[in-house]
Amino acid sequence: MLRSERRVFVRSGELIVGVLNRATQGPESWSWFLTGVSRPHDTWQGYADTEDAALDGFASCWERWLDWAGLEQVVPLQRTPTTIAALPR
Questions:
Q1: Are 58 and 45 in contact (CB under 8 A)?
Q2: Contact call for residues 77 and 9 (beta carbons, < 8 A)
Q3: Between 88 and 43, where is the model more confident?
Q4: Smaller CB count within 10 Å for the chain: N or C?
Q5: How far apart are CA 68 and CA 63, in angstroms?
Q6: Which residue has the higher pLDDT, 43 or 86?
Q7: Strands (E), 1-89
């Protein structure tokens, strides 16, 4: 199965702090990663079966980052979805 790529940017306020990506082939699966901020040595990416599970995994990672940075969440994380059309092969 070939489907359009779906990319979801995760924002904390105005800063994009993460990205969720849906696989374009095979069973639905998602990857996520932290972006836009300095990272200590740790795991800052992961995989999930659904978009909601990917966001949950990312949110857990974001909480670890906030703890590491000595910061606290002021506004809830927000999703900004984009769809990129699949190109014919």
A1: no
A2: no
A3: 43
A4: C
A5: 9
A6: 43
A7: 5-12, 15-22, 30-34, 45-48, 77-84
